[in-house]
Specification:
This protein is α+β, with helices and mostly antiparallel strands. The chain folds into 3 domains: 2-114, DNA Polymerase III, Chain A, domain 2 (Roll); 125-251, DNA Polymerase III, subunit A, domain 2 (DNA Polymerase III, Chain A, domain 2, Roll), CATH 3.10.150.10; 259-367, DNA Polymerase III, subunit A, domain 2 (DNA Polymerase III, Chain A, domain 2), CATH 3.10.150.10. Helices cover 17% and strands 43% of the residues. The protein has helices at residues 7-17, 71-79, 131-139, 202-211, 265-279, 327-334; strands at residues 2-6, 32-38, 41-47, 51-58, 60-63, 66-70, 85-90, 95-100, 103-108, 125-130, 156-161, 165-171, 175-182, 196-201, 218-223, 227-232, 235-240, 259-264, 286-292, 296-303, 306-313, 315-318, 321-326, 341-346, 353-357, 363-367. The strands form 4 sheets. Strands 14-11-12-13-26-25-24-18-22 form a 9-stranded antiparallel β-sheet. The protein has an 8-stranded antiparallel β-sheet with strand order 6-2-3-4-17-16-15-10. The chain has a 5-stranded antiparallel β-sheet with strand order 5-1-7-8-9. Helix 3 (131-139) crosses helix 4 (202-211) and helix 5 runs antiparallel to helix 6 (327-334). The longest helix is centred in the C-terminal third of the chain and has 15 residues, at 265-279.
Length: 375
Amino acid sequence: MYFRVQTDEMNYGLGMVTRAISPRPVKQVYEGVLIETVEDGLILTCTDGEMSIKARVSAMVEEDGCALLPAKLFAEMMRKQPVGEVEVKVDAKMRAAIRSRGSNTSMACMAAEDFPDIRDVAGDHTVTLPCNRLRDAVSRVMFAVSTDESRKILTGILMEVYADKTLLVGLDGFRLSLQKIEAENEVPDNLPKGNLHAVAPGRILGEVSKMLPDSADPALITFNASHIMYSFGGVRVYAALLTGEFIDYQKILPSAWTTEVMVMRSAFSDAIERCSLMAREGKNNLIYLHLLPDAKMEMTANAERGDVHEELDIGFTGNELNIAFNSRYLMDIIHNVDGERVRMCFNSNVSPCMMLPIEGDDFTFLVLPVRIFNR
């Protein structure tokens, strides 16, 4: 195998695929990057056995072939190369010669025949979404994805595909985040739930969101009953879907409420930040909200070292309410809210609080309160 490639092209491709390299690979072959020649360049592939990533790189191919190189070492070596063209030639003894302006390096290849065959997902369904909308939606769902491996299905993100929208949902039993992306989709008629759905591993989808460009270029999501593939900008990410029944989140979301407030997001966020400083010094990490009919929200937090009291102007309808939340849960949500103002909807001090946009339904957040006594 012999090819010539620009360092920026190779470094971009390696930066994408090496995200699949585990810090502690379970197999030695998972430490490698497979380089294969194709008609107009190279295909780079890395895997950790759960997530696989391929990237297409433009190159001048002089001699076809494939090689498996130590991924981290090769990536570091390429980053240190002078800007410009690099030649890579693999000989019959499976040693790679890497040459650039004034630099010559020799590197032993790994056994390419042991590398798993990563095939494109033969998808029954394909969804096309703008890269930036998908990236933003995933990033605003990730905080609510569970890390409890004993409930494996909740470590994933539910994707529901309707004819006019795609929903992404994450929940961990204490918080829920739902993000809507408006898009026209081909959905078969007479589906049992009225939508196509799949649960992708949250860890892998989180990596995808970091890789997606900030553009409206299309990202294709292809999936079947067992696997999913994300394709964008010459990159493909592969994963097995999680199996099991995701929680029916629709049953959790209240359809009506007895108290509703509207608050400025930035002022609310700042107040939460200040209260959180004291709340985490206490034993329970709580922030208390007192919603008053005179359109005021009082926020307090206390600990042995002191206490904090905040007062915010709000829009108010409904009943007076005292309610408490884990401060971290509130911060996670408010940091992911979009818009200048947000609606907060309540039924009681032991039922979930919903945070919604002032208009529309682009997002829905839900957080469970903490039961309080004698306050």
